[in-house]
């Protein structure tokens, strides 16, 4: 017999951690691309360090706050839906316990159990914690671990900020002639890392993900730099 491997992670906790990691990688990626496009565009129009710093900080703060607010609203809506679904389950369990037992039995049957085994399992789960059983099997919700909009908002804020700091520092720290080359190289290297990390966390091949990430970032910087150069030449 094969012994179970106790060091291998299982269950929903692993999936939840991976989702948070993917969200952090995507947030950092958004911070890198959006801030890089902004500061490189400004660099196309002016070499003034103060203008670059102001534009970069404004983009960092606006982007991080926007990401946090958007994530808070989105996750709050999800939390409201989860609470409403749990309230419905509580009412149905109170008013129609036999129908709910049959529903749970059928759900377990749908997962491959025989009728007899599914019925016995449904009875045992109902006796132990009926709401938790229905929440888990029927809704995919853990009543003790509902989504937290504040956690999501702070995670998005921090990940975007960390990503945005790279192009901001790269554009203001080097000498004038090196600012754009250093920023472009730094940003593309970071996009290789975030593209690879996102793909690996999603159990996908990294090649295409990296190419898409790098290509999108390079296009964004190229377009904004050209626009900034044209505006600078026109004296706008």
Describe the protein:
With 236 residues, the chain is mainly alpha-helical. The chain has one domain. Helix content is 83%, strand content 0%. The protein is built from seven helices and no strands. The chain has helices spanning 11-45, 49-95, 97-110, 115-139, 149-172, 179-201, 206-233. Helix 1 runs antiparallel to helix 2 (49-95), helix 2 packs across helix 3 (97-110) and helix 2 (49-95) packs antiparallel against helix 5 (149-172). The longest helix is centred in the first third of the chain and has 47 residues, at 49-95. The chain is elongated, with a radius of gyration of 25 Å. The termini are far apart. The relative contact order is 0.17. The model is unreliable at 1-12 (pLDDT under 50).
SSE topology sketch:
Layout lengths: L10 H35 L3 H47 L1 H14 L4 H25 L9 H24 L6 H23 L4 H28 L3
């Amino acid at each position: 017999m094969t012994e179970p491997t106790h060091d291998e992670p299982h269950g929903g906790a692993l999936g939840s951690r991976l989702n948070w990691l993917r969200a952090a990688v995507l947030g950092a990626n958004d911070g890198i691309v959006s801030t890089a496009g902004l500061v490189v565009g400004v660099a196309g129009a002016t070499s003034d360090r103060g203008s670059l710093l102001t534009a970069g900080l404004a983009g960092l703060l606006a982007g991080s706050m926007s990401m946090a607010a958007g994530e808070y609203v989105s996750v709050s809506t999800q939390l409201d839906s989860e609470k409403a679904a749990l309230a419905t389950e509580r009412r149905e369990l109170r008013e129609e316990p036999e129908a709910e037992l049959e529903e749970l039995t059928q759900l377990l049957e749908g997962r491959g159990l025989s009728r007899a085994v599914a019925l016995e399992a449904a009875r045992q789960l109902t006796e132990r914690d009926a709401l938790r059983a229905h929440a888990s099997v029927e809704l995919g919700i853990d009543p003790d671990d509902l989504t937290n909009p504040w956690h999501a908002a702070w995670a998005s804020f921090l990940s975007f900020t960390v990503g945005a700091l790279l192009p901001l520092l790269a554009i203001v720290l080097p000498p004038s002639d090196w600012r754009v080359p250093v920023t472009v190289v730094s940003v593309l290297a970071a996009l290789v890392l975030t593209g690879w990390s996102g793909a690996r966390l999603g159990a996908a091949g990294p090649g295409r993900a990296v190419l898409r990430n790098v290509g999108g970032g390079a296009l964004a910087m190229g377009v904004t730099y050209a626009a900034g150069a044209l505006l600078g030449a026109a004296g706008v």
